[in-house]
Structure formats: structure tokens, C-alpha cells
Amino acid sequence: MTQEASTELKILKAAEDIFIRDGIDGARMQEIADTAGINKAMLHYYFRSKKLLFERVFAEKAKYFFPEVSSIFQTDNSMVEKLEVFIEKYILFMNENPFIPFFIISTVNKRGNDGFIEKLPFKEAIAQNFIKSYADDLKLGRVPELDPMQLLLSVLGMCIFPYLSRPILMHNFGADEEVFEDLMLARIDELKRYIRKILIVD
Known about the structure:
InterPro entries: Homeodomain-like_sf, HTH-type_TetR-like_transc_reg, HTH_TetR
Organism: Arcticibacterium luteifluviistationis
Keywords: DNA-binding
Distance between the termini: 56 Å
Protein name: TetR/AcrR family transcriptional regulator
Number of domains: 2
CATH architecture of the largest domain: Orthogonal Bundle
Pfam family, one: TetR_N
Largest sheet: none
Oligomer: single chain
């Protein structure tokens, strides 16, 4: 790796930590430079403005907000199997990156009109493929007749909500980070059982 590439990675890592913690409005370029171990002039050489740096960090995080979902819903597996894979991959990823949901959602709520919503792969990667997968399984008689968008909202909510409310849950459950992570790992099987119960046709 060249020194220039290494410096850029240090900047992006420092910016990611600070943007996730403070958002774009609260973040300071001087703190990002200090954290990356460079001076502010060097930071501006790589990224001319805080907005450009934020957009780069957001784009990188947005790619992983719905990890590998496009490929999951394009397989020949049943809808139940696809959702089980999605739930497991999503929760495992969120356990490694618990602050990403809040970062993504708070950004699009505040700055959706700046084009940040379009950077999320939701429409193509999830909504369209999800609905098509459900319609295909419905024709085969493998799932009951449900509104696929309501099902999608339920699955996303059950996966994302615990991470959005993580500090509240940890405080009220008396849980530290390790206990919360174990709770979410156990949730994988709980959600799989829920999906099988409502989708498997007798």
C-alpha cells in the first residue's frame, strides 16, 4: 500500500469514528486531522471540505447497511431460507458495527434531500428483489398470502430496532456490551422461529 493510500485510510477511519459519534454538524475537521495523525492542511489536500469527506464515509457505510442482500434474494432458495440467511447476516454484521443503523438513519432524516437516501441500496437490493421473491414463492404455494411490504417492514424492524435503542436496552436490562451482543446472537434463532411460524404453509 502506498503512503498516500495509507493516509487516506487513516483519514477515513478517523472521520468514520467522529461522524458516527457527532454527525456531520458536530464533527470538526481539526479533530479528524488530529485523530488521523496529520495536520489540517494535509486533510484538506485529500478532502477539500467536510461535506465531501462525510459523503465518502456515508457512501462506504451505506454499502454495508444491508449486507449482501441483493445476492440473498436472487438465489433459488425458498423465501423462508432467504429470510433466515438475511437475519443471520444482518445481525452478525450489526453486532460488529452497532452504531451504523443510527448513523445512517439520523443522516437521511436530517439530510435526505441532499441525495443521501439515493445512496442506500434499499430499493433495488431489498424492496424489488424481496417482493419478487415473495411473489415467486406465493405462486409455488410455499408461503401464505401476505402483504410482502408489511413482512419486510416487520423483519427490518425486528433486526434494526434493538440497535437503535441499544443504550436504553442496555441500561434497563443492566447489560454490558458483551451481554447485549449475546442477546442479539440469541435473537437470530428467535427471529428464524418467528419467520418459520408465519411463513411455512402446512
